[in-house]
Design a protein that fits this description.
By secondary structure, the protein is of the alpha+beta class. It has a single domain, classed as Glutaredoxin, CATH 3.40.30.10. It contains 4 helices and 4 strands; from the N terminus they run H-E-H-E-H-E-E-H. The chain has a 4-stranded mixed sheet with strand order 2-1-3-4, covered by helices on one side. The longest helix has 14 residues. The two termini are 22 Å apart.
Length: 108
């Protein structure tokens, strides 16, 4: 699990070119919903070390979140081979995050 938000926002092209299973988390360090989701993410991501976790601070002037039409935080977007496979908005249980991670294709 990545405990900090990325200092520099990646470009949409960089995200689209990711080949491995990736979880992108859009949020803000002061957001109560985001803070509440952190223990859930931490517990689940420990079981999925192969999934890259990228935390992106979203807000005014941040283009990446707009390109994904993020409206509420946290928004979790699950990717494989540069394609969005699933999205969770304000998850409230570890089980729903775990289920989404299990749906990501595994590299063989």
């Amino acid at each position: 699990m990545n405990p900090v938000f990325e200092a520099a926002e990646p470009s949409r092209a960089e995200i689209d070119s990711l080949s491995a299973a990736t979880l992108i988390e859009f949020g803000a360090p002061w957001c109560g919903y985001c803070l509440a989701a952190q223990p859930l993410l931490e517990s689940v991501l420990a079981d999925f070390p192969e999934v890259r976790h990228i935390r992106i601070e979203d807000g005014p002037g941040r283009r990446l979140g707009r390109s994904f039409r993020v409206k509420l935080w946290p928004t979790l977007i699950f990717f494989s081979a540069g394609q969005e496979l699933e999205r969770l908005v304000r998850p409230t249980s570890a089980d729903e995050i775990r289920l989404a991670l299990r749906r990501l294709p595994r590299e063989t």
